[in-house]
Each structure stands twice: as C-alpha cells, then as structure tokens.
Amino acid sequence: MTFKYNHVYLNASSTVVGPNENQGPLKDFFDKKFSDFYAGEKSWEQAEIKMMATSINILLHKLKKAPSSIDLLIAGDLLDQIAPSSFVAANLKIPFLGIYSACATMAEAMIIGSNMLEAKQINNIICATSSHNLSAEKQFRYPSEYGAPKPKTATFTATGGAAAYLSRVKNHIKIESATIGKVIDLGQKDANHTGAAMAPAAADTIYTHFKNLKRNINHYDLILTGDLGLYGKEILINYLKEEYQIDIEKKYNDCGIMLYDLDKQNVGAGASGPVSSALVTFGYIIKQMTKKKFKKVLLVATGALFSPTFLFQSKTIPAVAHAIDLEVVE
Amino acid sequence: MTYLYAFLFAGAVCLIGQVILDNTKLTPGHVTSLFVIVGAFLDIFNIYDKFVLWAGGGALVPITSFGHLLIHGALDKAQEYGIMGLAMGMFDLTASGITAAIIIAFFITLIFKPKN
C-alpha cells in the first residue's frame, strides 16, 4: 500500500542518546546525551521513559509550543505493553495512540500521522519512540548480569529517545510518499540474527515502493534501512539483486551500521531498536538534507516482530518494513 | 601437578562450550543444561569422581560438577532409604552451593548496581 502526500512536512525533530551512541561516529549530531544507562533514574526502564520524555520536551522547546497545542501523539517502544510510551503520554496530556512494530515503530507512526495530516483530520502531530539497551536485553534475551556471550551476528539495541513534529506548515523537508509493508516470514528463528529475518521484508517493501511509484534507484540519493546490521545489509543487497533484479549497493546504507563504530565499539553487527533508525535519520540525515547533501532519501525502517514466548515454542520471527520518502523542498 | 590438571580439565570444558556456541544455534542456556546432564551421566561407575581426584577444583568448579553432585547425592540416599531416597538426596550435596549463591547474590545486590 503506497501513499503520495502533497502537504506533509517534517518541521522539527529531536534526539536523546545514551553512553554508547555518545561514543559513536555521529556523536556531534544529537541534542542531548546521557553519560550512563540510568539517566539519573532508579531503573533502566525508568531511564527509558526519561529519554523519550526528554526528546519530546526538547522538540516542544524547539517549536516554542505547549503540549496543549499538539493534536496527536503517536508513540511506541520495545517494552511489554509499550509502557514507557504510556507513561510519557500520561504526563503530556496529548491525545495518544500507542503502536508497536518493533524497530519500524517510528516509520509506522509517521505514516499514520502523514495520512491524517493529508486528510486534514489533524493539524499537527508528534511521533516519538525510545529504546534502551539494558531494558531490552532483559526482556528479549538474557539479563545483562548473566553475562551470556553473543554471536557476531547479534545486534546491539540502541539507547535513547527521538521525536518528530509533522504538520502542513511548509518547511524545507517534506514527506513525499510512503509504503506500508507486508509482514514477511521466511522461517528464520535465530533471535541473534534478526538482520536475516528483516532483510526479505525490506526487499519486498523497496520493490513495492519502486513499483507503485514507477521509480527506480536513480530517483534517490540514498536508500537507508533501519537496523539490518552488517550481515543483514549484505543479505538485502544480494536478495534484491537475485529476487527482484534491483541493485541498490552504490546508494545504500544501514542506520544500524552508521550509529556505532563497529571496529572500536563492542556492539556486534550494529545498532538495532526502534530508536536506531530515528537517531540516525533525525540526528544525521536530516542535517545533511538541510545542507542539500542528500535531496531524496528513502528510509526503510525494519522491524523484527519477535516474541521471546513464541521463540521458546519454536515459532519463527515475522518481520515488517515500512518505507518513507523524505524530500528536500526546492 | 594438580594445578596443571585443573587447568586442563576446566579449560577443556570451556573449549567444548565455546565450540558449541560458535558452531550451533544452541544458546548459553542450552549449553549449561547440557553440561549438567553430561556431569550427571558421568556419575555412572564413579567416572566423575575420578576426574575430581585427578583435577581437584578444576573438576569441581565447572557446571558439570553440579550434575554429578545431584545424582551422586540421590544415589547415596537411595542406598539408605530405597526409591524414596532418590528424591530425598537429590539436593543434599548441592544445597550448600545453591544456598551460598542465593545469600551472596542477596548481599551483592545490596551493595552494587549493574552498570552496563
């Protein structure tokens, strides 16, 4: 399902990061940095709430707006019952929709918001997400105190919060189009290799987006996937070539690889988590688009929709990818 | 020489664990359980006891020792009380280890907080 938008603009965004992101190659591009995993709170889960709340506060400050002037907040995160998002929404008192599509959450929020803006149902919206390495490890893998070793294909959940403000008020970056992806499940079961589960979903969404808009790779300056990581990136390049005869290699990068220095930081195959693509897009890519280094960027946020409970029952990891076309307004 | 044997035995257990983790899709949880079961089986004909005499702490520290002690305790009690003894003795020899782990963990959490 592909939508074209004529009046939806990205007016402002904000990023908050934890200690590891603060040591990565993009460290100079973030709005606020916390130097430890607690961010002054008692637990990692509460630190995650603080990071999402801080990102929204910074966004409102940039816009010089009060929460009461925002029509809708759409947010999601990785924890059970998306509790951090609910706590943040409880404080802000903005009408709230909570969503979950793992690491594709931000893209899902922006697509829902863009459709409502285009239909003039709302005037503005804040989309937000967060993830926290240690709260996610605890929930999806092992408690970090257990010290379980991880294979090299495992990704490292990014820590931070990110928020974006969309409206119909003209700005230099517009949301030009978007494609809602299908859930793809090719039977991958390895929670330490989510890149392999997500790559086919990303391939399907890229192919569908190109087909529905009658475009090819030449239309874009950059194709950006969410968090496939080092090995998932290779799989996507090859899978697109073989299955769909699309060669994206020259114009392609992955947010999970860009967020960290994979040689120096001990982060496995790269960053993952809903905040990973948001941090790279809003921290780095948007600033490069403002300088007109990139003019047309296709963000394909990828989500491994896995549940530890179902994995224990030997079920597979379904995956989804949503695409958003960001364009510099000339 | 016991020091060398301890190093060789415990090192071999770790090597096997690492080879399994690197070459299969088994998780650390699987490997730990597997070693407990292997240790339990090695109580047959008192094989593991021979390892303990030979390598000392090197054979007592790895998790294989836990499996061995479970069965060893159960069989000891079984000789005294018959079939009921199996259940009575299962945790006899490991009780001190389990209790120590719980108590030490409790005091450590009072003092320290995990950082990363």
Summary tags:
heterodimer, A: 330 residues, alpha/beta, Peroxisomal Thiolase, Chain A, domain 1, 2 domains, 6-stranded mixed beta sheet, 9 helices, 14 strands, 34% helix, 23% strand, globular, B: 116 residues, mainly alpha, 7 helices, 78% helix, 0% strand
Report what the structure shows.
The complex is a heterodimer of chains A (330) and B (116). Chain A has helices at 44-63, 83-92, 105-118, 133-140, 194-212, 229-244, 255-258, 274-290, 308-312; strands at 2-4, 9-17, 32-33, 72-76, 96-98, 124-131, 156-157, 160-167, 173-179, 222-225, 252-254, 271-272, 296-304, 319-328. Chain A has nine helices and 14 strands. Chain A has a six-stranded mixed beta sheet. Helices cover 34% and strands 23% of the residues of chain A. Chain A is an alpha/beta fold and 330 residues long. In chain B, α2 packs across α5 and α5 packs antiparallel against α6 (83-89). Chain B contains seven helices and no strands.
Annotated CATH homologous superfamily of the largest domain in chain A: Stage V sporulation protein AD
**Share of helical residues of chain B:** over 70%
* Mean pLDDT over the full residue set of chain A: 96
CATH architecture of the largest domain in chain A: 3-Layer(aba) Sandwich
In spatial order, strands of the major sheet of chain A run 1-9-14-13-10-11
What proportion of the residues of chain A is helical, as a percent range?
Answer: 25-40%
Estimate nothing, just give the exact number of structural domains of chain B.
1
Q: Major beta sheet of chain A, specifics?
A: 6 strands, mixed
Multimerization status: heterodimer
N to C succession of SSEs of chain B? HHHHHHH
Q: If you compute it from the alpha carbons, what radius of gyration of chain B comes out, rounded to the nearest whole angstrom?
A: 16 Å
Work out the largest interface and the residue count of each chain: A-B, 14 and 9 residues
Mean pLDDT of chain B: 93
Please summarize the sheet with the most strands of chain B.
Answer: none
Structural class of chain B: mainly alpha
Strand proportion of chain A, as a percent range, falls in 15-25%
Distance between the termini of chain B: 39 Å
Radius of gyration of chain A: 18 Å
Strand content of chain B: under 5%
